[in-house]
Design a protein that fits this description.
single chain, 336 residues, alpha+beta, Elastase, domain 1, Neutral Protease, domain 2, 2 domains, 8 helices, globular, binds asparagine, binds zinc ion, binds calcium ion, Zn-dependent metalloprotease
Length: 336
């Protein structure tokens, strides 16, 4: 049979009604996105291996609640679509490995599993249903975070320990947030927190805060607002805080702000203000640094050099934007 390229209507849990790529394969609609490398979305429940490709009979998917098993698949497929489009439109990147080939997503993993993960081996991402199987980890900034682990693997390949591990994690939070801002989605209002909709810990709070990473303090540990010699000893989800803070400061500037109705207050190590260059510029600098200058062993000092080189390439050495990059690193105690 000849597959017909479709755009299905999805009722997601976190992002309202969305369009998702589908195909009509001989009268059965499949959650396969032919315009994004053939990315497929599977439901893992009750079966081994990669699970069952999600299918439907009328190309209207999910009902926005957990009562419909398709809903989590809609969020995952939508996250994949927005992340693919973000990398393509912003940076000309053609998929995770920049070869036009899609990955795949697996939803309904495990039991009460409050996490999601990317796996370089299967080139796929996997989502648990969260606490009480009621809070799937499929919100947009999380799916873009997981897909970005694949981009990092395919580019700088930052080693997942020490300072390079923190930079790997931060790259996923930075691009996850950039995708949230890129998506035209009134239901999931973009912000500088990570995982704010899935209530991953059951505290009603986000997992991470980019404006002031130390606000994520929990029994498991805490991120730092500023670099110290101890940063490299932290779990990557905490050593990421220094770079997340750099990115927030570079994008939005220091001090108190309200963005899309959310209040932020970003301090600086040196007490000096940082002037904002906007998230579009900041994410372009980070992407170029990641894909052109960072390597597996890049540490915070190396990330500073890499982003300054990227800023010089994109905006000119000594430009205001270039100077802002140096100031934002100084503001998180990463100096020359
Ligand atoms: N969600 C986590 C992450 O992508 C999973 C993990 O800790 N590996 O970082
Ligand atoms: Zn991660
Ligand atoms: Ca967010």
């Amino acid at each position: 049979s000849v597959e017909e390229i479709r755009s299905g209507t999805g009722n997601s849990q976190y992002s309202g009604q969305v369009q998702i790529g589908t195909v009509n394969n001989g009268g059965v609609y499949e959650l396969t996105d032919p315009e994004r490398g053939g990315h497929k979305t599977y439901d893992l429940t009750g079966v081994g291996g990669i699970g069952n490709l999600v299918t439907d009979d009328d190309d209207v998917w999910g009902d926005g609640t957990l009562a419909d098993r398709q809903t989590a698949a809609v969020d995952a497929a939508y996250g994949q679509r927005e992340t693919w489009d973000f990398y393509k439109e912003r940076f000309g990147r053609n998929g995770i490995a920049d070869n036009g080939v899609g990955a795949f997503s697996r939803v309904h993993y495990g039991d009460n599993y409050a996490n999601a993960f990317w796996d370089d081996g299967c080139f796929c991402m996997t989502y648990g249903d969260g606490r009480e199987n009621a809070h799937p980890l499929t919100e947009l900034d999380i799916s873009a975070h997981e897909m970005t682990h694949g981009v990092t693997f395919a580019t700088a390949n930052l080693t997942y320990t020490g300072e390079s591990g923190g930079l790997n994690e931060a790259t996923s939070d930075i691009m996850g947030t950039a995708v949230e801002f890129f998506a035209d989605n009134p239901a999931d209002v973009p912000d500088y927190t990570i995982g704010e909709l899935a209530d991953v810990r059951g505290t009603g709070k986000p997992l991470r805060y980019m404006d002031q990473p130390s606000k994520d303090a929990s029994a498991k540990g805490t991120s730092q607002d500023y670099w110290t010699p101890e940063t490299r000893k932290l779990d990557p989800h905490f050593s990421s805080g220094v770079a997340n803070h750099f990115f927030y400061l570079l994008s939005e500037g220091s001090g108190k702000k309200t963005i899309n109705g959310v209040a932020y207050d970003s301090p600086t190590y040196d007490g000096l203000p940082v002037a904002p260059i906007g998230m579009g510029n900041a994410s372009a600098i980070w992407y170029r640094a990641l894909t052109t200058y960072m390597t597996s062993g890049t540490d915070y000092a190396g990330a500073r050099t890499a982003t300054l080189q990227a800023a010089a390439d994109l905006f000119g050495q000594g430009s205001e934007t270039y100077e802002a990059v140096g100031n934002a690193w100084a503001a998180v105690n990463v100096g020359a």
